[in-house]
Every structure is written in C-alpha cells, then in structure tokens.
Amino acid sequence: MIRLSIPLRQALARLALPLMIAAAFGVMLLGKADALLAERLRAQLADALAPIYAALAEPMSAVRGAVEEVRALTTLREENALLRQENERLRRWHATALALESENDMLRRQLNFLPEAAPAFVTARVVADGGGTYARAVLLAAGPQHGIRKGQVALDERGFVGRVTEVGTRSARVLLATDMNSRIPVTLEGSRARAIMAGSNGARPRLAHWPEGVIPVEGERVVTNAEAGAFPAGLPVGVVRVSAQGVPEVELFARLDRLDSVRLFDYGLRGILPPESVARPEPRQGRR
Amino acid sequence: MANAPFRRPEGRPAPAPGLLRRIDDFARLAFPGVSTAVLLVLAAAPVSLPSPVFAVALPCVAFWTVFRPAAMAPPVTFALGLLLDLLTLAPLGAGVLVLLVVHGLALRFRRFLARQSFLAVWLAFCLAAAGAAGLHWAMQALLALSLPPLAPAMHAALLSAGLYPAVALVLTRLHEAMRHAEGAP
Predict the structure, then answer these.
(1) pLDDT tens across A63-98, in order?
(2) What gap in Å lies between CA A13 and CA A17, rounded to an integer?
(3) CA dist., res. A267 & res. A116, Å (int)
(4) How many domains does one find in chain B?
(5) Beta carbon pairs, A and B, within 8 Å
C-alpha cells in the first residue's frame, strides 16, 4: 500500500465523491456516445452471471411451485363446489343418456331396425392450407397405399370439416365447408327442417334454401343430412348464428383455422357423381 | 555434523496471525460492497415479479453509508451503481448518479442520523427513496429523451421504503457482529 500523508488522504477522501459524480456524468456521456457499449457490457455481464442464475433456477422453480400450490389450495374450496355442481349436472345427463339408450334399444327391437355398420376411417395429417382450385381447402399427406377415395367425409375431433375432392397417390385434398364451392345438405335439429349450407369463403358458411315457414333459430344445432346420398345423417356441423345483417349462418364446431389432422370416414356412399359423368350427361331415355 | 537447532527470533510476532488479521480486516472492509453486489445480482434473477434491483440497492447503500462509511466509499458506490445500471435496462449512468447522490446525502447527515431512533431513520430513508426514485425517473427521461411511465418509479420507491426495515434488521446484526469483532483484541 502506498503510504500517504494524513492531510493528503483526507483531501482525497473529500474529493472522492465529487470525482465519482463527475465520473457518473462521464459514464452517461459515454453511454450516450456509444449506444452499443452498454449492450456489450450487459451481454458480458449476463454471460458471467448466467451460471449463477442457472444454479438458482432449480430452487426458484421449487419456490414458485410451492406458491402455486398454496394459491391452488386457497381456491380449492370454490373449485370443489364448482366441480360438485358440475358433477351433479353431468349425473343428470348421464341418467338421461341411459334412459334414452334403453328407450332407443326398445324402439329398435320393435322396429327391427338394421344398424349401420361402424364406418371405417383413416386419420391423415394436414400439411398445407389452400392451394389448388379452391380458396378454402387443405392438403393431406397420406401413405402410398391409403384407402382414401373421392367423396369421403372429413371430420376433426369436434365436427364436420369438409369432403375429399382430389386424391393423389400420396396426398388428398379436402374442400372445406367454408369454401365458396361447398354446398352441404344439412338438417336444423330443432325444427328437423332441411337446408343447404353454402360456403362463402368467410369463417361462417350461410344457410340457404330452408323450407317456408321455418326460421333458423339462433343457437340451433346443425347436423348433416342424408339427402342425395352424399353424407350420412347426423354428423355434427355447427350451430346457427344470425349475423348482424340478419342472415342465418353456421358457426362450425370444427376449428378450420387450426386443423392439424383430420379423420376421413368411409361411409360407402356413392351419392356424388364423378366429374366425367357431370361433364357428359347421359341422354335421357324415351325423349326422342 | 549435528543439526543446529533452529532458533525462532524472539520479540517478533508470528506471520500467520498477521496475515489472518489482514484478511479479516479486508473481508470486513469489502463485505458491504460485495454483499450488496451479490444482493443486486440475486434481485436481478429472472423471476416473474417486477425487478426489485433498484429497491434493493437503495437501502443497502444508505445503511452502509450511515453506519460504515469507510466500507461504502464513493468508488464502491460508483461500482454498485454501474452494476445496477447494467442489471436493469436503465440508461448507463442514471443509477450511478442516483446512488452517489444518496450516498452523499447519507454521508452529509450521517452524524445526525446515527443518533436517531430506527423509526426516524426509516422516515428519512422513505423521503430519500422517494427523491431517489424521482431523480432516477428524471435521469431516465433526460437520457432517453422520452417520458418513461411513472408507475415503476413509484413502485420502486414504495418497495425500497418497505424493504428498508428488513434489510436494516439483518445489516444491523451484521454490523454489530463486525463491531464486536473489531472491538476484540
């Protein structure tokens, strides 16, 4: 250590604070003059401190977990009450379902009803949106020996998505229900009225051609209709929403904006005419 | 040839205790600065809470300046301020100046403050914290040439005023222990 005389040391001690304040202004100027300096220093400091924080991360997360636990415990009571309520409701529904099932069984026995075979399905991954002829369509990747055929019905985990329109050797294209060219025969579940759900390239397809005297009601469930033999009856499609302009639209159950995989069901329906026959209609007989 | 017995020179202290003593002294001198720096680094740890770095720095600097000014010298304060600026995203130099001003004020009134009760010191610190947060906000506005939101500054002032008793409690214990160690021969 350098030995300094006492007066000099005192003078230095008294000068230290003004000097340091001047240095603080110097640092400010430096920081203003070289904006990258602070960035670089911060990055170096962060590099140096990163191991410390990494070591701290474990106990920190434990503490955070404990706090979360405590918070969950405080809300446990309300949650429990809510769950109990919901359980009650679900129990009622369960009872209703059981009753309906037994009733259904009984009615089927009386009618000698032929049950439909469970449809076979394949699940395919959605690899691309759009493309091709249609504005609202998705491309599916399929294996080389896939059994996908034109006209199969595509559903996601919530409801109706669309119909297969093109099939390649390793891919298939599904025309979504929202596309301008999509026309789906549907049934309004409340009134059992038939209608056509016509896509508009928007998020909600519109309802059209419902019979006179029936008005689609807001919140009514919409399911597919077996008319024309293109779809099986009763696939969930969506609910009716009346737009601001008073046009009844369908809010789809399926989340078409975030499709990642769809199931393609083979109902064995041949209701859709192949394009060749549409292009060359057969002449009607007996009208010569 | 027989080994001549080694004679320890008499009247001179053994070197080991002197070294230990010096290390001890140095540790005591360095403790306030280093402990504050460690606290700052811990406070800057990425948690989901708003960063309490500024609020932690103020009580430490004020306490050590009042009760142990030799250890919280202006250069140490300067270094802590620089660390504060680097740990937070404030413009470089703002925290340095604020800590130096707090240090200077505490040094100026230290003889008066050291005699007061804890409550009075806390009250004075609350005022100082409010002033420091205001100054920090003003420096940020000046250096960035834009008005930063006021809420974080008020938040920091309140947080640091609230942290002071906890910090002071621990630091007072440490200070007493250090005084005790210094008093012992």
Answers:
(1) 888 989 998 898 898 999 999 999 999 999 998 999
(2) 8
(3) 9
(4) 1
(5) 74
Which residue, among B98, B116, B109, has the nearest Cα to B61 in the 3D structure?
A: B98
Q: A56 and B41 in contact by Cβ < 8 A?
A: no
Contacts of A251 (CB under 8 A, 6+ apart): A204, A238, A239, A240, A241
Residues in chain A closer than 8 A to B25 (CB atoms): none
Cβ-based neighbour number of residue B139 at 10 Å? 21
Q: Tens digits of per-residue pLDDT, B129-181?
A: 999 999 989 988 888 888 888 888 888 888 888 888 888 888 888 888 888 87
Residue B52 in domain: yes
Whether A67 has its CB under 8 Å from any CB of chain B: the answer is no
Check B93 against A28: CB less than 8 A apart: yes
- What domains, with CATH codes, occur in chain A? 9-110 (no CATH), 119-270 (2.40.10.340)
Structural domain includes residue B109: yes
In a domain, B9, yes or no: no
What pTM was estimated for this model as a whole? Answer: 0.53
Distance from CA of A77 to the nearest CA of B (A): 26
Locate B51 and state its tokens: 């960063």
Q: Which domain holds residue B113?
A: 30-183
User: Is B69 touching A (CB cutoff 8 A)?
Assistant: no
The CA distance from B92 to A13, in Å, is: 25
- What's the confidence (pLDDT) of residue B11? 61
Which pLDDT band, with edges at 50, 70 and 90, does A280 fall under?
A: very low
Contact A162, A182 (CB under 8 A): yes
Query: Which of chain B's residues have a Cβ under 8 Å away from the Cβ of A20?
Result: 74-75, 77-78, 100
B15 domain residue, yes or no: no
Decide if the complex's ipTM is over 0.85: no
Tokens of A53: 């924080």
Backbone angles phi, psi at A223, to 5 degrees: -125, 165
CB of A71 less than 8 A from some CB of B: no
CB A135, CB A251: distance < 8 Å: no
